Amino acid sequence: MNWGAFARASPELAALGRERFEGPELCMLGTIRRNGWPRISPCELDLVDDELLLGMMWRSPKAVDLLRDDRCVLHSCTANQDGSEGDFKLYGTARDEHDPAIHEAYRAAVRARIDWEPSGPFHLFAIQVESAAFVVFSPDSYTMAWDPSGGTRRWNQRLE
Predict the structure, then answer these.
(1) All domains of the chain, ordered by start, with CATH?
(2) Angle CA 107–113–117, to nearest 5
(3) What Rg, from alpha-carbon coordinates, does the chain have?
(4) Tens digits of residue pLDDT in 78-103
(5) Which long-range contacts (CB under 8 A, 24 or more apart) does 113-116 make?
(6) Which stretches of 61-159 are DSSP H helices?
(7) Range name among 76-85, 126-135, 148-157 with the lowest pLDDT average
(8) Burial class (CB in 10 A: 0-12, 13-18, 19+), 146
(9) Contact of 65 with 57, CB cutoff 8 Å
(10) Residue 144 in this model has a pLDDT that exceeds 60
(11) What is the DSSP letter of 103?
(12) CA–CA dist 141, 158 (Å, integer)
């Protein structure tokens, strides 16, 4: 499902994810390399309408990974050592997006965010959400998770 459908299915978790992704305007993208080993790369993302979009340089290694195997994980950037800000993880697949209207909406979103827009050929992927989780590590730690079969769940974990 796209980001909009995920946000309707799990509004609280999607709001936490949106906050963690949009704050630093960066995430870590995990892909699978041709040899089967994982690759992790920083990546900018934009939420445009109901789509979570990742733009990438033409034929970049991470884009080639996704063209070959669309499975991926997105992880929010963690800035504090104690983990109290929370980690958002999203597991899904990347759809190679060719719709000119979506490309233009993506360009407009990037232009509004950083006063620049991609030119020439670039890859654009729309992430389809399979599952997501948010974890806070602190004395009052908790985890929230969502997937289509289990819905949204939350549990507390006291760290001693």
Answers:
(1) 3-158 (2.30.110.10)
(2) 30
(3) 16
(4) 888 888 889 999 999 999 999 999 99
(5) 113/25, 113/46, 114/25
(6) 61-68, 100-114
(7) 76-85
(8) buried
(9) no
(10) yes
(11) H
(12) 6
Task: Give the integer Cα–Cα distance in Å for 128 and 131.
Answer: 9
| pLDDT above 70 coverage of the chain, percent | 98
Greater pLDDT, 146 or 158: 146
Distance, in Å, from the CA atom of 39 to the CA atom of 28, rounded to the nearest integer, reads 10
Least confident of 11-20, 51-60, 139-148: 139-148
Neighbouring C-alpha atoms within 13 Å toward the C-beta of 6? 27
Q: Which helix (H) or strand (E) element contains residue 7?
A: helix 3-9
Cβ–Cβ < 8 Å for 147, 130: yes
Sequence-separated (6 or more) residues with CB below 8 Å from residue 151: 9, 10
